Each structure stands twice: as structure tokens, then as C-alpha cells.
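hiii, so i know i said id send this last week but things got crazy w the move. better late than never?? heres the sequnce for the chain we talked about at the cafe, plus the structure i predicted for it. fair warning i was half asleep when i ran it
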Amino acid sequence: MNERIERIVADVALIASFVLSFLTHENGALVHSLVSLVFTGVLLHHVKHNWTAYRRPRLRSKWAANQTIALLMLATTVTGLTFWIAGEDFALAHGPLSVAAAIAVIPHVWVHRRWVGRLLRRPAISSSESAQ
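okay and structure toks below
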């Protein structure tokens, strides 16, 4: 599989697991936790592939969007794991943090919109391929 297809599959998996994580919070702690752990794994894959771009972006707005979403996702994951292990007494921050993380996705995608557009555009067909 080429890198472009791999990134599209990874981004679709990231979006699907993110949405499923929100949709399963009413289905019980076990289902929500398992789906959220899958989301965390896919998110770590996303960060691993984009680590250089996230660490040193050219624009300060990209840096702020990247760091904000990273901190919110980390805090949401930690409070979710704490809630799962320690019980409902520690669940107070998990809901508001997850909503804040979901809202932070919007500026993160916005500052990376050109890259997303390039990824989704079809590659140009070379003249040697079109002649065949």
C-alpha cells in the first residue's frame, strides 16, 4: 500500500474511532473504554506519522492548534483511564475535557486544511500511464 492510501485509511480510522468514542459513551463504561482505547491507538499512529510537522510547524497558529489538541487529548485520555480504574468520583473532568478536545479538532483541521486537500486530490496521471 502506498503512503497516500495508508494516510487516507489512517485518517478515516481516526475520524471513525473519534465519532464512535462519542457515540458509545451512553452504552456503558466497558464499550466506551474499549472504543476509546482503539481511538487512542489510532491517534498515536497519527501523531507518530506527523511528529516532525507537529513539533516544528512554520506558523505559530499551527503550533498552538497542535499543542492545544495534544494536551486536551492527553488530559481526556488520562481522566478517562482514571475514571475507569478509580471509579465515578474522578469522572468530573472527563466530560468537559472530551467536549473541549472535540471542539479543538476544528481549528486543528483548519490550520492543516491545505495538506488535507492535497491528500484527497487525485494524483496527476503521467503521460506514460495515459498512453497505455
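btw The radius of gyration is 18 Å. thought thatd interest u
miss u guys!!
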